[in-house]
Amino acid sequence: MNKGERSMDKKESNKNLPISKNEDVEFSEELADEEDMKAQERAAEADHRQNNK
C-alpha cells in the first residue's frame, strides 16, 4: 500500500464519522459582553451554512 492509498482510505473512513452540530458549552447572556454576542451570532450563521449544504 502506498501513501496515496492510505490517504484515500483515511478520507473514506472519515466519511463515516458522525457530524457534531452542537458542543456542550456553558453560556450566560447575563455575563456575555459584545464579543461573546458576536461569537454567538457567528456560530449560529456557521450552523445555518452547514445545515443548508
From TrEMBL:
<dbReference type="InterPro" id="IPR025435">
    <property type="entry name" value="YfhD-like"/>
</dbReference>
<dbReference type="Pfam" id="PF14151">
    <property type="entry name" value="YfhD"/>
</dbReference>
<feature type="region of interest" description="Disordered">
    <location>
        <begin position="1"/>
        <end position="53"/>
    </location>
</feature>
<feature type="compositionally biased region" description="Acidic residues">
    <location>
        <begin position="25"/>
        <end position="36"/>
    </location>
</feature>
<feature type="compositionally biased region" description="Basic and acidic residues">
    <location>
        <begin position="37"/>
        <end position="53"/>
    </location>
</feature>
<feature type="compositionally biased region" description="Basic and acidic residues">
    <location>
        <begin position="1"/>
        <end position="14"/>
    </location>
</feature>
<protein>
    <submittedName>
        <fullName>YfhD family protein</fullName>
    </submittedName>
</protein>
